[in-house]
Amino acid sequence: MGVLIGSAVIPLWNLMTWNLASGTGAVIAAWSGMILALAGWIVAAYIQGGKVTVATLGSEEVMLSGNLIAIFSSGFIHYIYSKFVDPVVFDFDTLNDNIHLVEQDLSGLSAAERDKTMIHKTKKWIQTRGYLLTFVLILLWPLCSVPAKIFTKSYFSFWVLLSIAWGFGAALTIAILPLYESADDIYRVIAGITGMGGGSEDAVETSAVETDAATMKAKELTSSDDVDEEFLAVLSSVTTPTKTV
User: Fold this and answer.
1) Whole-model pTM above 0.90?
2) 191-226, pLDDT tens digit by residue?
3) Which residues contact 176 (CB under 8 A, 6 or more apart)?
4) Which candidate among 14, 105, 120, 166 keeps its CA 20 to 30 Å from the CA of 198?
């Protein structure tokens, strides 16, 4: 499968992260890389096995050749096309002006989470750990197995156990962390269902404050100074909680 789709990896990555990436070049690179990968895959099967069959095409070395050709040839083609054939400079800041939410609902995001400085720091945090994890999984992890050469039964069992521990650790992390981060919201939902929240004055006042903040945000999001007062009135009537006796 990588022979067919691997050629799209680097062009897509470039489009999302490189301001000089050419859109036309990405399309050309993806298709060209796939064609080169198919050709290299078939040629490698013939060179290694003397004929092209399902068995020779499915060998590990031949499949690896096709995948590597797909990935690296498309990246090279896209770079050359973007730098010398269709040089463009894309301003990623224009995304903030041209991409709009269907519904301007930002109630789930705090002011800090909408801050551009914080977003850039988060991006750097993700990139740093992403590159580190890539290095560990693609280079460091396989290199650790080189000294063993041919695995003994006990050494192979150790690697299997390590893989299982890695899998379970990852599963627990992606399952528990979202629950931990959403603990307050989950508690409020459960309290609302069971009546444990009590419907206190503080809750009503907090909701009113949040409604006022949402109304002010709606005013800020309008493209002109002529705010539709009728819309704001409806918004307030729908979102403002009513105190029950």
Assistant:
1) no
2) 888 887 655 445 544 555 555 555 566 555 554 444
3) none
4) 105
